[in-house]
Write a structure and sequence with these properties.
heterodimer; A: 140 residues; alpha+beta; 5-stranded antiparallel sheet; 4-stranded mixed sheet; 3 helices; B: 250 residues; 5-stranded mixed sheet; 3-stranded mixed sheet
Chain lengths: 140, 250
């Protein structure tokens, strides 16, 4: 299951969706909105996606992960739009027969997602300024 | 039209009200998903504005209204259209120029419909005839290949979508570029540099996607393609210099 949505993510439902009698291990990762980055304070975040391409890239990640680990079920949910502090921006859930593979696959999916899937976030800082997070461009 | 809009407003008033509404007439068949997406993106960027797509000085549809203005529709005199609302709030109007007349096409009569159909759905050989270099007895397909032309509807045009900081810098969600035959991503970058100087140094750091895949500078950009400017994605706090599609550190 791969979902990109403006609606809040029910992380328990996403995790539940990957449970299976074939799997002895379920690993879920939640990305949540952090208030403090270094010495700066965040008010809220805005996520923007290129929806069709993001769906396509996430589906490719699923294929790659399934080729690499014995994955039973896999679910990724990513939120777009405005997110308040503490809210869940992304959930990656994986089930495998054994825990090592579930941990590895979940970490790889999350790390790779952040590198290749066209979803961007904009920091709305508490001082009123805003900033697109585009690694490698330096501070704007 | 007033009547159906009023009904919609009453339904919306009864529920959880939206931030803004789009007015999309049913007799405007040329409105594309891309155009609607552009208007929505502009409405998000300027939530207090009335966003109207225009072409050749003519205003078209869909029009985005901030919800705060919408209930006023119910109070308009019965003999005036919703345009009166636009006139009343003309200081809020943001016009977004469109590359073709699709926002302004509305069909009111069977003749309008036939005219529009013949314009848009003519087989390629008829299009050739219309251009005056038509095909007596020769195979129209062959001639099209020989002259290197493409059907008029999409000839050489590439829609480039802009996201995140690129969209913000350019002040728009997309641009349609005319590219030469056999154009590559490098040509697309050059055209973007020329047409959207506001992108500045971001363009060099951004990836280009063609038909929803990352594409290198040598990749072809055929007519009718959807391309996109993909600024570096979030990456996470420890991802540093990672760029999308770069597998070198994995």
């Amino acid at each position: 299951m791969i979902v990109i949505s403006e609606a809040p993510i029910d992380h328990a439902a996403v995790t539940d969706s990957v449970r299976s009698n074939l799997a002895g291990a379920v690993c879920s990762f939640l990305g949540t909105v952090r208030e403090i980055t270094g010495d700066r304070r965040t008010s809220f975040l805005e996520y923007e996606a290129y929806p069709a391409m993001a769906q396509k890239k996430l589906a490719e990640l699923e294929q790659q992960a399934r080729a690499r680990w014995p994955i039973v079920e896999l679910a990724i949910a990513h939120r777009v739009g405005r997110l308040e502090l503490g809210e869940i921006s992304v959930v990656v859930a994986v089930s495998c027969p054994h825990r090592r593979h579930a941990f590895e696959a979940c970490q790889w999916l999350m790390d790779t997602l952040k590198q290749v899937v066209p979803i961007w976030k904009k920091e709305q800082w508490a001082d009123g300024s805003e900033e697109w997070v585009h690694p490698g461009l330096g501070e704007t | 039209m007033r009547d159906s809009i009023e009904r919609a407003v009453r339904v919306l008033l009864a529920g959880q009200t939206p931030d803004w509404v789009l007015l999309v007439p049913g007799d405007s068949p040329a409105l594309s998903a891309n155009l609607v997406a552009n208007v929505i993106e502009q409405a998000r960027l300027a939530p207090d504005a009335i966003v109207i797509p225009v072409h050749g000085g003519r205003r078209g549809h869909p029009v985005a209204f901030p919800w705060a203005l919408v209930p006023e529709i119910l109070d308009l005199p019965s003999d005036v259209g919703v345009n009166a609302l636009v006139a009343r709030h003309r200081d809020r109007v943001v016009e977004i120029e469109q590359p073709d007349d699709s926002p302004t096409i509305d069909l009111d009569t069977p003749e309008d419909w036939e005219h529009w159909q013949s314009r848009n759905h003519a087989p390629p050989d008829q299009v050739q005839d219309a251009k005056g270099n038509g095909s007596q007895n020769s195979d129209p397909t062959e001639e099209r290949l020989a002259t290197g032309s493409t059907p008029i509807a999409t000839g050489g045009k590439v829609t480039v979508r802009l996201f995140a900081l690129a969209r913000q810098l350019a002040g728009r969600g997309s641009i349609v570029l005319a590219l030469p035959e056999g154009a590559t991503v490098a040509d697309l970058r050059e055209a973007l540099r020329r047409e959207l100087p506001a992108l500045g140094p971001l363009l060099a750091r951004a990836m280009i996607a063609v038909n929803e895949d990352y594409a290198g500078d040598d990749a072809p950009v055929p007519p009718g393609t959807e391309a996109a400017v993909i600024p570096p994605v979030s990456g996470g706090g420890d991802a540093g210099e990672h760029r999308p599609g770069d597998n070198s550190r994995r």
